[in-house]
Amino acid sequence: MADSFHPPQHLYYDGRIQAASSGKVIRTINPSTAQPLADVFSASHSDVDAAVTSAQKAFHAWSKSPPIVRSRILLKAAQLLRERNDEIAAVETQDTGKPYSETSTVDVVTGADALEFFANLVGGGGLNGETAQLREDAWVYTKKEALGVCAGIGAWNYPIQIALWKSAPCLAAGNTMVYKPSEFTPLHGQTLAEIYTEAGVPPGVFNVVNGAGDVGAYLTAHPAIAKVSFTGQVSTGKKVAASAAGEMKYITMELGGKSPIIILPDADLNNAVDGAMLANFFSSGQVCTNGTRVFVPRDKLEDFEKKVLERLEYIRPGPLMDMNTNFGPLVSNIHYEKVINYIKHGIDVDKAKLLCGGLGKPAAINGLEGGYWIKPTVFTDCHDSMKIVQEEIFGPVMTILPYSTVDEAVERANTTPLGLAAGVFTLDLNLAHQVISKLEAGITWINTWGESPAEMSVGGWKQSGVGVENGKRGLEAWVRNKSTLVDMSGVVPTVFAKI
């Protein structure tokens, strides 16, 4: 698909496209060329109010509809997503800068997977409560009830996937949603809303408001919002969580990471290097769970470095719609400058050993030099005190840290305020489980990296987040519990009786 200027993107509520009243337009950019991609109309406060009101009106009927009815509608939406996979993926590629080889096989697919999972879960009794016989003439039952109108704040790195990870359990549980895409990658929002409508989701159940952080702040602080689900950086997440907590709103926060990979001494180095490559350079390193701190046994460091250099030859930047391309640019100029500054700091201040990459753009991007391209970069023989080791870079920058003992590696791996993901590579599965049990992270892998299927509940520890997404526990994050005690004895006991 050639680069093109897309039609303007509008707001969506009451089951149809709506004009924004703010007069503000955000122009999105194709990251591979730095050329304009689309005009997106930003919501005013009154537009957000209208979208929330639409969601409020729709809530009662949607939440009271039988779960199997909601399930059938959402399964239809999943089918439509799969049927339109290629066209949606092509837009995601232009919007995010990720290669089509990735978006066509991962982004829409994994979002549809989540929609199917939660639709099937509620259709199969996933919202059933519990009963308990308290005594012969008394019993207790519980119900799982929808929360109300929820706010979803999307992230720019996996736009359609994250929108579905949030809206699928939200809608399946009987809630309604007002969703704000990232202003950097907003082109999926209107498309997803139209698919939901076509599938039979009633007007007002899923709504979209576009805009920057000010729109998101107004939405999440709105008094009619019962829950906020946010994906993004730690600093912003803390502000959103603080605002929501002050109003006793429910929250799910999926924030950043600085995740460790521990290559244990007996690991197959070929597999370990493949895992480290995946954990650092997939999506050009713009993945929150990336394993950017790679702990390698000191006596294996030279062999590990050699194999990393060999694998780097297989990273292929280039035209994004070429299925042979497997590496794209960074998402925006702002982010490009941020990552470049980290690389400069690693070279000039941290004095880290640069194994490959560094400043400048990849050679094989003929005709795309204006885009936000960056070289896959590896620093080796790093120390824990380095800024590039301590802070989340969110780009294709690997740091290799040698270690002497496994206990040392585990202790150093845990010395971070973040705790999103972690993993180990080893041939000894008993040792793998022992090490994993000691790592302070909510998402862990053994002899693999990065896969987060819809069946797997994922969420961060420490400052990497609150709550989980996906899996059976992911549905619990979108309901509240009501317990009822029924006494059938016909007698109300009292201490206020006549003596």
Automatic annotation (TrEMBL):
It comes from the Eukaryota. The keyword NAD applies. The active site is at residue 254. Residues 21-483 form the Aldehyde dehydrogenase domain. Keywords: Metal-binding, NAD, Oxidoreductase. The keyword NAD applies. Pfam families: Aldedh (PF00171). This is aldehyde dehydrogenase (NAD(+)). It comes from Heterodermia speciosa.
